[in-house]
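Worked example
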Amino acid sequence: MCCHRLYIYSVCGHSALSPAPLIECRHASIAPGQSYSTTCELIAHPYQSWKLEQLCPSCQQRRDELMGHFEEAQVVKFDEWRWKVSYGMPTHGKDYWGRKADEREEEEAASVKSSNKDNRLIVFSLKRKNGRKSQVKR
């Protein structure tokens, strides 16, 4: 039993053993064109298992191909001149919101003038007020 390193790809859930064994057993017979022994059982030691936070190479290649097809198929076209916006003052006068702001200011000024016509003198005191009525001796 030759001990290999185990790679676990957590995104897709696949796993793969390392191509060459970390520890060869005495029964290992690796042919010149191969990277592992055909006579031994492939095992992985828990301390030699690596968890990788990515896709395995075959899933990554498939994902890249699919995303390439999507990017080629989905092209957004628009007329840039229709989306240009000017935030300056219009040449013909105030716009809708400018007129509304002026009307609101005029209404506030009119309400202040009407409230000032009463001309009542209102005095505010910062002293603490006593809630009990004073008892005057007569």
